[in-house]
Amino acid sequence: MMDDFLKSAKKQFLYYKSLGEKTMAQLQDNDLFWQYNDESNSVAMIVQHLWGNMLSRWTDFLTTDGEKEWRQRDQEFEAIINTRSELIEKWDAGWQCLFDALDAITPEDWDKPVYIRGERHTVVDAINRQLAHYPCHIGQIVFIGKMRSSGWQSLTIPKGKSQAFNDDMFGKLR
Question: Which domains does the chain possess?
């Protein structure tokens, strides 16, 4: 059962990772740093935050609190990343840390407590917490992408194409 949960969680993380990547691929470099206003975040800031969160939460996932002393969360929302390559490097490093931690979970680990900011979680709860958190930010990235991209290519079912999509999907089942 736990193996099935872990496979499902990895599949969902990969899906949301791909949505972010497909969005960023549709943006010009300058669009990665665009902010609607001073209170909003750019794609780069969101990536910075995800990177910081992922490194903090998934480094020594089972043995140390998920809010590491070295994390500088407030700085994650400042304009620090300056290039697409730096953004992609942080994006990849964060996801790699997450997947390495998930891949290291053994059957014996499921009963261990996981702490995040001193709050005790089960391993399943800690994974679910992040599986709820990251898609929120990926959704922000997609929303910014839709606002900034000229010629946006839908990442899922395009507007007005639901019936054609369903016909195609159900046609494959017949």
Answer: 2-173 (1.20.120.450)
- Calpha distance 97→115 (Å, rounded): 17
For every residue of the chain, DSSP letters joined together read -HHHHHHHHHHHHHHHHHHHHHHHHTS-GGGGG--SSTTS--HHHHHHHHHHHHHHHHTTTTTS-SS-TT--GGGGGSS---SHHHHHHHHHHHHHHHHHHHHH--GGGGGS-EEETTEEE-HHHHHHHHHHHHHHHHHHHHHHHHHH-TTPPPSSSPTT-HHHHHHHHHHHH-
Q: Tell me, what's the pLDDT at 171?
A: 84
Q: Which of 32, 151, 155 is nearest to 83 (CA)?
A: 32
Percent of the chain topping pLDDT 70: 99
| pTM (2 d.p.) | 0.93
Q: What is the mean pLDDT of residues 64-89?
A: 96
Rg (CA), the chain: 18
